[in-house]
Automatic annotation (TrEMBL):
InterPro entries: Inner_ear_hair_cell_LOXHD (IPR052970), PLAT/LH2_dom (IPR001024), PLAT/LH2_dom_sf (IPR036392). PANTHER family: OXYGEN-REGULATED PROTEIN 1 (PTHR45901:SF7), PROTEIN CBG12474 (PTHR45901). This is Lipoxygenase homology domain-containing protein 1. Gene3D superfamilies: Catalase core domain (2.40.180.10). It holds the Pfam family PLAT. Transmembrane segments: none annotated. PROSITE patterns: PLAT. It comes from the Eukaryota. Residues 1-105 form the PLAT domain.
Length: 178
């Protein structure tokens, strides 16, 4: 009883807009939304750019309308990218949390438009900052809210008073905002 006979709808959201609610009518399978089955639908729409979320659900009508949805994969024929939206939950008024619609965000990080740029910036930031965490260095964090220091010593001690003249070597100040 993991399939559904209800009418299923999807809205796809991208950086350039959304499709609006579309009923999934014609599957490549004779009977759609059966347990353990993968259904394939063609949805015509303007190109939405990089996709970030979908809303998928059903109207709750018909016998056995509850539905267990594993995932949705959208293949963009223009960019040749696949967008994966994991669900692995019930869309059923009598199961799980009782919702018959779900908002799912893209879970395939490789399709995130700026992923490579963000990864490069993370690596550059770490390369510029990792010297502070070398053996023998002491870090002092200043908290503007409490106007006090927290000192992290190389031996693992934490000093909430944060002695500014530290016997362990270099002291670096990092500002913490609460």
């Amino acid at each position: 009883n993991a399939g559904t006979e209800a009418d299923v709808y999807i809205s796809v959201y991208g950086e350039r807009g959304d499709t609006g609610s579309r009923q999934l009518l014609r599957s490549q399978k004779h009977k759609k939304f059966l347990k353990g089955q993968t259904d394939i639908f063609a949805v015509e729409a303007v190109h939405l750019g990089h996709l970030y979320k979908i809303v998928i659900g059903h109207n709750g009508l018909g016998s056995g309308n509850g539905w267990f949805l594993d995932k949705v994969v959208i293949k963009d024929p223009i960019t040749d990218l696949d967008y994966t939206f994991l669900c692995h939950r019930w869309l059923d008024q009598g199961q799980d949390d009782g919702n018959i619609a779900r908002e799912l965000t893209v879970t395939d990080a490789s399709t995130f438009p700026g992923r490579q740029e963000l990864e490069l910036k993370r690596e550059e930031s770490w390369a510029a900052e990792k010297w502070k965490f070398q053996k023998g260095n002491t870090l002092q964090f200043y908290n503007r809210l409490t106007r006090g220091f927290i000192c992290l010593s190389p031996d693992g001690r934490v000093d909430a008073l944060g002695d500014k003249k530290n016997k362990y070597g270099k002291v670096f100040f990092m500002w913490m905002y609460a």
